[in-house]
Amino acid sequence: MSKDQYTKEDEFNDAMKEAEMNSVEGQLDENELENKEEDNKSEDEKPSSEALLQAEKDKYLRLFAEFENYKRRTSKERIELFKTANQELMTVLLPILDDFERALTHIEDDKEAEELRKGVLLIYQKLLKTLEQKGLSAIEVNQGDVFDADTHDAITQIPAPSDDLKGKIIDCVEKGYKLGDKIIRHPKVVVGQA
């Protein structure tokens, strides 16, 4: 480094220090002016200690209420999370329930497989009972029910066989299920054309 560069850096550093000192002095002057203005105020204009105490109490109560609301909200969210924690597992098991129902339908047609039907029915009922204990429930859909786009999934529309079935459900192709209050699979239905 040359001597000229060193002096330029020193000059720069000195200028920075001087600017900092001036800003600190300016702040001190402003603080002194504020203090003098406060001293000049009459005693009537200053807030009383009771008013300050009341303001602090209000602030404390608001903060406490906000914290209680936070606790209530997080506990509610935690409960909802526990209710729907098994959603992924339930969604994976739903096709297995469908397969059991199809198997039972086909086994009923075969009169010679009575023992097989009893075994499959027993396993199906046990699986269904276990899933129901964990919060799974089937969504009931009957012919003639009003179609609701929030609940049902229309896969097709066909001409309504009668006037009273126009815009209503004609057939349910696939069952829908709820886990708690949340729909995890919408029932697939056929709707009558209006």
How would you portray this structure in words?
The chain is an alpha+beta fold and 194 residues long. The protein has a domain at 83-193: Head domain of nucleotide exchange factor GrpE (Nucleotide Exchange Factor Grpe, Chain A, domain 2). The protein contains four helices and six strands. It has helices at 3-40, 49-83, 87-109, 114-133, and strands at residues 136-139, 153-159, 169-174, 176-179, 182-185, 188-193. The strands form two sheets. Strands 1-4-5 form a three-stranded antiparallel sheet. A hairpin with a 2-residue loop joins strand 4 (176-179) and strand 5 (182-185). Helix 3 runs antiparallel to helix 4 (114-133). The N and C termini lie far apart (91 Å). Residues 1-20 have a biased composition (Basic and acidic residues). Residues 27-42 have a biased composition (Acidic residues). InterPro entries: GrpE, GrpE_CC, GrpE_head. GO terms for molecular function: adenyl-nucleotide exchange factor activity; protein homodimerization activity; protein-folding chaperone binding; unfolded protein binding. It is found in: Cytoplasm.
